[in-house]
Amino acid sequence: MIGHDETPMASPADGAACGPTADVAAPVMTDEMGDPAPAPEIVAEDDRLVVNIGPSHPSTHGVCRVLVELDGEIVTKAEPIIGHLHRGIEKMAENRTYLQVVPLTDRLDYVGSMYANWAYCRAVERLAGIRVPERAEYIRVIVCELQRIASHMMAIGPAGADTGATSLFMYTFWQRELILDLFESLCGARLTYNYVRPGGVAFDLPDGWAEQCRTFIDQHPSAILEIDRFLFGNVIFRVRTKGLGVLSPEDAVSWGASGPVARGSGVDWDLRRDDPYSVYPRLDFSVPVGERGDCYDRARVRLWECVESCRIIAQALDALEEFEPGVIKAEGLPRLLAPRPGDAYDHIESARGSLGVYLVSDGTVRPYRMKVRSPAFVNLALLPLVSVGHTLADLVVILGSLDPVFGEVDR
Amino acid sequence: MTFVWGLLWGLAAVMLIAGGAVVGVWWERKVAGRIQMRLGPQQIGPAGVLQMIADVPKLLFKEDIVPTGADKPVFRYAPLAVFAPVAMSVAVIPFWAGWAPLDSTVGMVFYLAIPSIGVLGILLSAWGSHNTLATIGGLRAAAQMISYEVPRSLAVLSVIILAGSLQPTKVMDAWQWWWVPLTFVGFLVYLIASIAEMNRGPFDLPEAESELVAGYFSDYSGFRWAIFMMGEYGAMISAALFGAAVFLGGYRWLPGVPGLVLFLVIAMLIITVVMWVKWTFPRLRQDHLMTFCWTVLTPLAIVQVVVAGVVALWL
Q1: Rounded to an integer, what distance in angstroms lies between the CA atom of residue B236 and that of residue B275?
Q2: What are the residues of chain B with a beta carbon less than 8 Å away from any beta carbon of chain A?
Q3: Does chain A have fewer CB atoms within 10 Å around its N or its C terminus?
Q4: CA–CA separation, B180 vs B210, rounded Å?
């Protein structure tokens, strides 16, 4: 909006659409305002080599830049530099109505859009005091557990590809593809779903969808076993990832790690069980926990979580049959939500960890402030801690095991 | 006159390697496709066989980019230093009873020595690119290729001891069927060390795409890149032909033309196994690679040499 007022085309209507700041004179960018913070530079000590990994690199899982200082092949410093995918989603949300923010949350964690949808909707529901029908909660659980499987498949496959087992990628992607097909028939989108809405979900399950979903979860555990044999049974993979990038449980807790990264270190913490939300208390599932906190355990925790997700989906599908079809949204929702002034925070267990959304309302139809507590961001901060002392080849494996999604890191 | 013949054979070897690389790329894409639940190329020609004929002109006409910071002459001619030794090594492979393109009396040593020059080309290309990732790849390649020379040479030594000759055609004349079980460990050591020599998975650390993008040829494009690819496939073809001949008997199983066909089929099977391994296994790490070479392969090769030596005493 810099210099917006000076353009002759600007009309009051344009200004109003841009929110309250458009009324005051837009600040002119000058040198006094200071340049954006310069990217940190690593100056090599003695005869060490500084290598720039990224932002465009085959295995940074997005647009991450890591400045690495190498002593031979050993990493002595690693500095993740983020912000290459910053789109200002939290700021953009301040100029959208509550319903219009949902598609923005799709773009946060583009590997697990359902989660961001859900976390945001839970915050809105808490803010506005909306009671979600039980049937919609079961549908949310089903799609989000499917999303967890899809997201973990996206983590395990590239974890293999980082070590060079490129074929495994296709096997995990095949499973993810089946889930995306299910989502496509559910809401028409394969990546950015805009499906979970404040007060419920957007569409009811199409005819025969539950059966297709059952077909998927019936075949999924055998596919998991095949992946288990293919990757985790491979001696090269085991030798490479066991004892690699060890994260102690104390560090995991004090750095705020969550999700499979924390559980791989033996931190038995899962919001679905420990801060129960939605209908999870009624479902029977266990939380896989690792022991050593290395890349192997982190990947393996993800693998077994997929099996647990299958169990949850099966129970939720059974429970869904007892409801009258058609009820998917809270009754009496206004078209334009305008919650009372106040704030609300709610978090859910996403595939990457505890994903929280903080919302402040000033009583208008747009949120005054939105803040996303991103598990990917917190987990990525562990990279220098766990990767120093390992080789360059292992750095990318460790980065992959933290499973960052940069849409969510940079927001 | 010798010079003219040499020139002709040289051309033939280059054509063999280039043609083999074209077929090899197609075959690899098919093998990888099967392993990855895909079909591989299938649009151009039956089963996509003409795909590479479409790809070669594309590579030829691509822009030839030389990075600004590169050492230009070194960067330009390093691919040739990688490709030439591979093409030369084909010269001593015995294709027919008593006949090899260059039937040298020290052919076996020639075969082991000449491909080692390729590491020089890789180092030159890595250094000439003036790129940190390429430099790391080049240094990895140097360490790896020089180390794996040792078990590879020892494995071939066992056959040389049994045959009592360094001349490839003489080795083939002396070959007996029971050498196959006797030198099978040697053959496996030779095959694994050869995979490491040609920088293919799971030993493709010099060009590890997950951390080094493409390693020593990161900055290459167009036809110079294609020469690297031809070098890699050429090394695979050459190693498979040599292994099929001296370890597995090559043309000796059947007389005449069927023997030659069988020889090529065995080599083809070896190439398929090499591709299969690449698309199945994760990549080793540098320290594991060296440990594997010096504590597993080299002792195994020495044991094989001792076994061959003891048996040779009784021959």
Answers
A1: 10
A2: 32, 35-38, 132-133, 136, 201-202, 204-205, 208-211, 213, 279-288
A3: N
A4: 38
Nearest to B124 by CA among B148, B146, B141, B147: B141
Give the tokens for residue A28: 């002119």
Strand-strand pairing, A74-81 and A49-53: unpaired
Whole-number Å distance between alpha carbons of A329 and A295: 41
- The distance of A15 to chain B (nearest Cα, Å) reads 47
The Cα–Cα gap between B206 and B236 comes to: 16
Chain B residues within 8 A of A397 when measuring between CB atoms: 210
Give the integer Cα–Cα distance in Å for A405 and A112. 9
Q: What is the pLDDT of residues B30-87, one digit of tens each?
A: 888 888 888 888 888 788 888 878 888 888 888 888 888 888 888 888 888 888 888 8
Map out the domains of chain A as residue ranges: 1-35, 89-410
Q: Which helix (H) or strand (E) holds A68?
A: strand A65-71
For A89-410, which CATH superfamily applies?
Cytochrome-c3 Hydrogenase, chain B (1.10.645.10)
Cis upstream peptide for A375 (omega within 30°): no
CA distance, residue A18 to nearest chain B CA (Å): 43
Q: What does the domain layout of chain B look like in residue ranges?
A: 2-314
| pTM, full prediction | 0.81
Task: Indicate yes or no: CB of B285 within 8 angstroms of CB of A240.
Answer: yes
Contact A66, A380 (CB under 8 A): no
